[in-house]
Automatic annotation (TrEMBL):
<dbReference type="InterPro" id="IPR023201">
    <property type="entry name" value="SecY_dom_sf"/>
</dbReference>
<feature type="transmembrane region" description="Helical">
    <location>
        <begin position="45"/>
        <end position="68"/>
    </location>
</feature>
<dbReference type="GO" id="GO:0016020">
    <property type="term" value="C:membrane"/>
</dbReference>
<dbReference type="InterPro" id="IPR002208">
    <property type="entry name" value="SecY/SEC61-alpha"/>
</dbReference>
<protein>
    <submittedName>
        <fullName>Protein translocase subunit SecY</fullName>
    </submittedName>
</protein>
<feature type="transmembrane region" description="Helical">
    <location>
        <begin position="140"/>
        <end position="160"/>
    </location>
</feature>
<keyword id="KW-0653">Protein transport</keyword>
<dbReference type="GO" id="GO:0015031">
    <property type="term" value="P:protein transport"/>
</dbReference>
<keyword id="KW-0812">Transmembrane</keyword>
<keyword id="KW-1133">Transmembrane helix</keyword>
<keyword id="KW-0472">Membrane</keyword>
<dbReference type="InterPro" id="IPR030659">
    <property type="entry name" value="SecY_CS"/>
</dbReference>
<comment type="similarity">
    <text>Belongs to the SecY/SEC61-alpha family.</text>
</comment>
<keyword id="KW-0811">Translocation</keyword>
<feature type="transmembrane region" description="Helical">
    <location>
        <begin position="6"/>
        <end position="25"/>
    </location>
</feature>
<feature type="transmembrane region" description="Helical">
    <location>
        <begin position="80"/>
        <end position="101"/>
    </location>
</feature>
<feature type="transmembrane region" description="Helical">
    <location>
        <begin position="234"/>
        <end position="255"/>
    </location>
</feature>
Amino acid sequence: MSIVALGVFPYITASIIMQLLTPVIPTLQNLSREGEAGRIKMNRITHWGTVPIAIAQAFAQLVLLQQANVLTNVGFSGDALMPTIAAILSMTAGTMFLVWLGELITERGIGNGISLIIFAGIVVGFPGLLARGFLDRDNILGVFFFALIGLLIVAMIVVFNEAHRRIPVQYGRSIFRGGQMYRQSGSSYIPLRINSAGMIPLIFAFSIVILPGTVAQYLSSGNLNAALSPGGPIYWILAFFLVVGFTFFYTLVVFQQQNIAENLQRNGGFVLGIRPGRPTQDYLNRVIIRLTMGGALFLGFIAIVPYLASLVTNVEAIALSSTSLLIMVGVGLDTLRQLEAQLMMRNYEGFLR
């Protein structure tokens, strides 16, 4: 993970926690229904929640640097107190600056600013990754397989990110015109994506799967640390099942927050062949579970692609990050849609045909 991506990780974590707590805490539920004013208040809460996470991450980074013999003066006592506090405050301020910069990019209408910052950090690191992993070892064949696997992963990510099922919806409403009542109807659809969770299950899964190895490192348990190292099969098997499980968990939590069936019934809409209300909610739940099965298996495969690629290219599994490719493709598609919308709004003609 690049330094830039690591810098905004506390904000991403705080945002995910807010999404998971919204269905549980009534106050957050009320804020989510207040429109723009509620969104501003929830963003403010997310910003305050980012600060302690950024402080914890900063201290963890200092400890890791100390274990790598890069730093020797880390702690909260004696001569190490002031340098440690200064380093933590500097790293926390850097995180908040990146968050402010990302929101400024979003307000300008270019796209999701935080995602663009992560995208830039990943792209900057690719030349160095190629040089360290392949060119320095004169592994030209490895470069070829790296490019081939990367192209295949990008194509697969595009297909699964854009794939969705359209649920037909019929709207009917009554209007008064000329002293008489007329019945108007219209049709639309609800797009349910196969991969509606994005990269979040991958972040959750890898954050948890590295925890036992980290604890084992602190406890000096060499066998457990070796078994759960990123190069071992157990690590990747755990990552696969955790990604699948978190995909179902996150997708269902976010889907329940949207209250699609309730909003349809309030606006006079109904799914063709399904009664409004509870039957519509049950039908949509069944559909989203079936779709999520495909999306979960896809994300699980994306999670273990680095290990499979290492078996082909003879380069350590961490070299080819399919998670980074997933972020890059998702941000690229989202930015493309944002630019298309801006052009359509100003010139009534986009650049996509």
